[in-house]
Amino acid sequence: MKCRERENLFLFIHQMLGSDESERMRQHLAKCTECARAAEEYRKLDSALDHWVAAEPSPWFDAGVRARIESSARKKSWLFGFGRPRALAAGVAAIVVIVVAVVVFDHPRVAEINQPLSSLEQPVTITPGPRAPTTTASMRKPLPPEEQLKMDENLSVLEDYDVVANFDALSELPQAREN
Amino acid sequence: MAVDSDVDLMLRVRQGDVSSFDELLRRYRAPLIRYLYRLVRDQALAEDLAQEAFLRVYNARHRYRPDARFTTWLYRIATNLALNAIRDAKGRQRQDSGNSGEDSERSFEFVDTRVSVEQEMIETDRGRMIREAIESLPENQRAAVILHKYQDVDYRQIAKVLKVSESAVKSLLFRAYETLRVRLEPLVREGLL
Questions:
Q1: Residue B166 and residue B189 in one domain
Q2: Quick check: B165 contacting A, CB < 8 Å?
Q3: DSSP code of A41?
Q4: Is residue B11 located within the same domain as residue B82?
């Protein structure tokens, strides 16, 4: 008997063939003694397998299931309370970082210190004549030359604008003169 | 009085009805333990795995969708647990034999090749031969045969449990029964069965 025929025979015995194929197999078995004998072998084998007896549940099986369910529920409630150590630690760490960030960056001095370097590195517009040092804010936004000049003239620290305007610090130094 | 279907019971379990879960436990503890026992051949382990399977069903109750039979779901969980246990045991045996320098390839097949004294006492020669023949099958063939022959699960459902096609299940079963037919032929021929 060919393998495919044997497989169909097996499927027929175990009712896994379609109705048309089952009918063809039934007709074939009626006239083929070899296949009929093989079919009988499958039936014997099937009933033989009944001799393997399996274990039955122990009397404490249900109690074991309930105990596991209770234990699992306790573990879950613990996990969803305070007991998820990693999540809890991550949450606390995140809160600490946020609080520290708010405190540090909200402080005006710290904010000034921590201002981005890029803002300090903006090109400074050079205006004719000397200029008194200005605030950081004015450095960030250079004024037009006319306005800058007016502002410098009105500064109280500059008592004599002409002197200051023509002041050459290096000319006062003897070494500088010699050089 | 109408008997509640498994799906009805499971839907009630999903809503928090513990007594419905008890009913499912009552219905399926014995078949499930027999199934697992035949797969792992260790009663204590079979009970342990069955308890774990029921626990997983209970814990997954909120995710249950009645689009498949309850038993398909239950057997799929149980099969995965059993196959994992068998593979873990094989790994341990491989490690042990590696440490002792023994080559025990044959013993990798089973979780525990020893049979308890009680089992020896109740097992007939025929039972022992059949058990050994089924145990010699590859894992997926063994699971398919046990589901088909002993759990009365049809091949369509077996396909869902094992996550293979229906034609693959037919092929698995045919090859498994062919192996069994050859191995048990002396018994069949001598009329001992």
A1: yes
A2: no
A3: H
A4: yes
Compute chain A's Rg from CA coordinates: 49
Q: Looking at the partner chain, which of A7, A61, A69 has a beta carbon nearest the beta carbon of B29?
A: A61
C-alpha span between B161 and B77 (Å, rounded): 8
DSSP A124: P
CA distance A74 to chain B (A): 12
Distance between CA atoms of residues B39 and B29, nearest Å? 15
Asked if the Cβ–Cβ distance from B127 to A52 is below 8 Å, we say yes
Token duo for residue B154: 């049809």
Where is the domain boundary, B61, B96, B114? B114
Smallest Cβ distance to B47: which of A16, A52, A61?
A: A61
Q: How many helices (H) and strands (E) does chain A have?
A: 11, 0
Instruction: Read off the CATH number of the domain in which B62 is found.
Output: 1.10.1740.10
Whole domain around residue B79: which residue ranges? 1-114
Taking chain A (179 residues) in consecutive chunks of 10 residues, what is each chunk's mean pLDDT?
80 93 92 90 88 87 93 75 63 82 68 56 55 52 74 58 58 54
Task: In whole angstroms, give the CA distance from residue B82 to residue A6.
Answer: 31
Q: Is residue B119 part of a domain?
A: no
Q: Is A7 in Cβ contact with B51 (below 8 Å)? A: no
User: A51 to chain B: which residues are within 8 Å by CB?
Assistant: 124, 126-127, 130, 193
- Interface TM-score (ipTM) > 0.85: no
DSSP 8-state code for residue B5: P
CB B136 within 8 A of CB B183: yes
Burial of A137 (C-beta count, 10 Å sphere; 0-12/13-18/19+):
exposed
- B148 domain residue, yes or no: yes
CA A7 to chain centre: 53
Residues in chain B with pLDDT values less than 50: 102-113, 192-193
